[in-house]
Amino acid sequence: MKKRNFIMTITTVYTALILYFMFFGFNRLEGRGDYIEAGYEFLFIPTSVPLTFPNLLFSWLYDFGNIAAFIPFGILVPLLMQINYKKFIGGFLLVIFGLETLQTLLYLGTFDIDDVISNTLGATIGYVAYKVGFTSNLTVKKLIASSLSAIILIICVMLVSEILEKRVSSIQPLQTIDEVTGAKPQTNQMPAFIIGDEKIQPQSNLYMNEGNASQTYIYTIEGKEELILYLNLGIPDDEEFQGEVTIVADEDKKFEMAEDYLKEFLTMPMPLEVPLFFEYEKMTITITGNVKLWDVGFTELKHWWK
Asked: VanZ-like domain location, by residue (predicted)?
């Protein structure tokens, strides 16, 4: 009986501590006005992996805490009552969904399915640790085995997260996007030219208007996430200073620059960055006059094996 009361006391104190951090920690009261202004937010689609390999960023510590903080519940609850994993995790999910919803309704946070997944992983790791070591005949050897099982499971979560995590790719030449309609850029025997008394020798591609009213390059970018274009552009010194370039993603104009602005931008570092952070199906580059784009590249979020 004393043992049960001791476990109950630990569980109560620890639960109160977790509730404090969920509803009052991390300056939630001070930031409540921002949540009220933004309105209720319910994020039901996972946007990140639970836990990558360790780094020195606060975000990693936060992700680790979202898992580690709930490991004790996987140990304490089964110690208080005989319960199988299905009933335990079912009850845990009901409680954590309720707390996340309450957190949102009180404007003290946002319902985030990523947090629910991480919390549930933590509770599951704790339950496995309980099954390994916390039996009626508790020994130091079993406690060590229990701790090692928790550590191994956390490492497994990291490994799976690293496999699933999407990261920013290296800069790739734009012509590596295979699905193209309209004109194609020059990629071989590209001529050099002078812009601002600097000799430019394109290395990967050259986009230009070849004697037409305009030249259009159309790329299919469906499925590419967090796409960022890198542009080098200008008008050669020995050509009439006129023309413009526009970039449209579906129906959204993402970039436009005419000769009036090019003089100013010649003094800025190249390449220029054009983010396309929403999911678009088609990107259209239109060039008029004597504007040239060269060594145009892009990055995207992708898995390591792609």
From this structure: 13-132
pLDDT at 265 over 70: no
Mean pLDDT of the region 174-186: 88
The two structure tokens encoding residue 104: 């949102």
Report domain extents, the chain: 2-165, 172-302
Q: Which two tokens stand for residue 137?
A: 């005949």
288: Cβ–Cβ under 8 A, 6 or more apart, which residues? 209, 213, 214, 215, 243, 244, 245
> What is the token pair recorded at 23?
């509803």
* Helix 58-68, helix 113-133: angle, nearest 10: 50
Classify strands 198-200 and 215-220 as parallel, antiparallel or unpaired: unpaired
pTM: 0.77
Backbone angles phi, psi at 37, to 5 degrees: -65, -40
Spell out the CATH class of 172-302.
Answer: mainly beta
